[in-house]
Amino acid sequence: MSYADLYASWQQDPEGFWMDQAKAIDWVKAPEKALDASAAPLYRWFADSQVNTCYNAVDRHVANGRGDQAAIIYDSPVTDTKRTITYAQLLDNVASLAGALRAQGIEKGDRVIIYMPMVPEALEAMLACARLGAVHSVVFGGFAAHELAVRIDDATPKAIIAGSCGIEPGRVVKYKPLLDAAIAEARHKPDFCVILQRDQCHADLVAGRDHDWHAIQQDVTPAACVPVAGDHPAYILYTSGTTGAPKGVVRPTAGHLVALNWTMKAIYNVDPGDVFWAASDVGWVVGHSYICYAPLIHGNTTVVFEGKPIGTPDAGTFWRVIQEHNVRSFFTAPTAFRAIKREDPQGAMIKDYDISCLRALYLAGERADPDTIEWAQRVMNVPVYDHWWQTETGFPIVANPAGVEALPVKIGSPTVAMPGYDVQVLDEAGHPVAPGTLGAIAVKLPLPPGTLPTLWNAEDRFVKSYLTTFPGYYETGDAGMIDDDGYLYIMARTDDVINVAGHRLSTGAMEEILAAHPDIGECAVIGVGDELKGQLPLGLVCLNKGCDRPHAEIVKEVISAVRDQIGPVAAFKLVAVVDRLPKTRSGKILRATMVKIADNQDFKLPATIDDPAILDEIRTALQPLGYAKG
Ligand code: COA
Ligand code: AMP
């Protein structure tokens, strides 16, 4: 089948297309109706079905003879550990953990927060929740206690499952003090916690609240899978929006199963039994979809890699993992490749390994710059597929359908719309623009199965953030264009979200922290270009009148405030003190203009600017930080 035929088959009968894909899922009660549009523009897929995610990701593979196949390969250069877990073992582990959670009172619909590093137990915790119909919310380990507290208050979990620590190169990150601080700060208190003690750091447990991962499973009855309705929330994953309050993206159970399963062959071109590796983190959507759920649902082997592209121990680590575990398709963020390229520009280290098992490299999460793509193609000698999607969608919107028909790669484009997505570029009035013209990227409603039906506890925010600007469309928050061949190009975000080393962050959230500093009267945080991480946040702060404290002291304080409240992952290290910020006459801060100045890009002086002279002051202030050098 060609891509054109595939896309046309979806266009002609969208519901029939997804009903066909639904046949690959094992249902307790199969869906009779694909789409429920009765509450449009809110949609539900497969709502009349009954199903269990864990059954599809684990049990059915054991029942179908895959019990001895590796489900998870854990490869951890930071702890010097390698371990393989078969599907049969995974089933035992997950049923036992689910049994322990149930014995403590976890039932269908209860929320459970998971705060764990890249260990197989993180996947087991996710699957144990799925087994019970409990709704997990995984929080990335690089977030600070405050961010965890915000999520505890929003998700109101009955339990929190955490690791005692994570391991970053050169330091052990103790999770337990962060967890304790978050629970102390949150208004909502979980009934209990389960702590996985790691050899690198043993956490003190709070009597009556905290249970040891192994002790809590002693003598419990393994839990069976609990059927849930097709539109039951499988999980909540918080992601950055415009304000400091993260958005709780809800993932619907049945659509998630159907859509993810379909992508494994059509996009990632793997067959059941093949080894698939996504080098990301379970705290991000890539980790949810392509470390945990999709490969397991599809009967693949997934690699859980606890390490970094460089420094654990060197820039050859990725090649070693691909060779050693026979990886067929590999997915990571461009920033990881930029790091390897910087360390080993000639790609000399790859010569020590045989990566002929690999068929393709997939990049997403941030803009893939042409240099990096070309470098990866050259040293790896496999096709490099950029593809574009978001936490909200859970699977690719625009990609190269390599398992159906590998389309020619146009460097700079993540290729073409996948079935399920009618992607349009719109002008400000919401009208589709001509090919080659820049505009806001939107997707015609309804979105396909598996995409977010709403935001947790925030239906109004869902409608306002995504469905209001362009009625009848989902607003992606990205801007770009489509060329004459239907290839999409992503150029920029239209909101205050930035992408730092593939991590999605809110400049608005950082501004809220800066603005709370007693000496700061006004501030702006912008995303400036960075060769390694794609973007970095940079704060511009105006001090209160009369403040005579040394600027360096205040700068230090705001940097540590962002690290303490958002976490090290924000990578907030650049701050300039300025007398005033450029604004329009109506008082809007000209952030985009400051980004252009910082990155030495041409820009048109905004017609509404209040006082153009301020731009020179900004340029001067940015230069000591290595920006706006002209
Ligand atoms: N737990 C605790 N801290 C974490 C963490 C975690 N899970 N992940 C990152 N951090 C910390 C880092 O230690 C670092 O702290 P520091 O300021 O004390 O050095 C900070 O957060 C920033 O981390 P990171 O963005 O990873 O930068 P880095 O300089 O340590 O490493 C790369 C640079 C390119 C090697 C790294 O960013 C990388 O591997 N990126 C791949 C991105 C990726 O997989 N994205 C997922 C989306 S698909
Ligand atoms: P996240 O929700 O963390 O996956 O981030 C989604 C955002 O990352 C998108 O809205 C884009 O802004 C950006 N993004 C993801 N993939 C790509 C890509 N292939 N090219 C450019 N930007 C991307």
Overview of this protein structure:
The chain has 630 residues and is of the alpha/beta class. Among the domains are: 86-226, Rossmann fold (3-Layer(aba) Sandwich), CATH 3.40.50.980; 497-625, ANL, C-terminal domain (GMP Synthetase, Chain A, domain 3, 2-Layer Sandwich). The strands form 10 sheets. Strands 5-4-17-16-18-19-20 form a 7-stranded mixed sheet, with helices on both faces. The protein has a 5-stranded parallel sheet with strand order 7-6-8-11-12, with helices on both faces. Helix 8 (253-266) crosses helix 9. It starts with a helix and ends in an 8-residue tail after the last helix. The model has no long low-confidence stretch (mean pLDDT 97).
